[in-house]
Amino acid sequence: MTDTFRADPCSICAEPVERHTESYCNGCGRLFHLNQREDLPGRDCGTVSLSEAHLALEFLCNACLEAAPAASPTLDAVLDLSEAAQAAGMSEPELAQAAAAGSVPHRRTAGGSLLFEREAIEGLLRARGRA
Ligand SMILES: [Zn+2]
Ligand SMILES: [Zn+2]
Fold it and tell me: For position 34, what pLDDT does the model report?
């Protein structure tokens, strides 16, 4: 080991990055730790995953992971009765009836409103598609 590898600090934890943990984030371009050697100990301050869209490895530091929860769409995961009925292509009374009959997983709030998970509605659509 006679080379002069400069140990720049990780943008996440500020510790020096070793050669085998040197990774650059595809989100912010900063240096972070990601152990790329299974046979050597190393710190992980982010992740790497295979992008199906680009068929390339995507490096993401922890800061970008936390800033971009785009991978887990929780925003529209829960629907109220009218949204769910629209998504299911049913009328609100039809869907409420299906929920009451137990054929659609749902939750009832303290105020009596029905809430549906988008997944449950999609499952309903798939089940109807098969029928
Ligand atoms: Zn680090
Ligand atoms: Zn980043």
Answer: 96
pLDDT tens digit sequence for 57-89: 889 999 998 886 555 455 568 899 999 999 999
How many domains does one find in the chain?
Answer: 2
Please tell me the distance from the alpha carbon of residue 100 to that of residue 16, in angstroms, as a whole number: 59
CATH number at 82 reads: 1.10.1660.10
| Domain span at 86 | 78-130
Residues with CB under 5 A from ligand 2 (ion): 25, 27-28, 61, 64
The model's pTM = 0.49
For 29: left if phi > 0, alpha if psi spans -120 to 50, otherwise beta; the answer is left
What distance in angstroms lies between residue 103's CA and the mean position of ligand 1's atoms? 49
Answer yes or no: is 14 within a domain: no
Dist. CA 44 → ligand 2 center (Å): 13
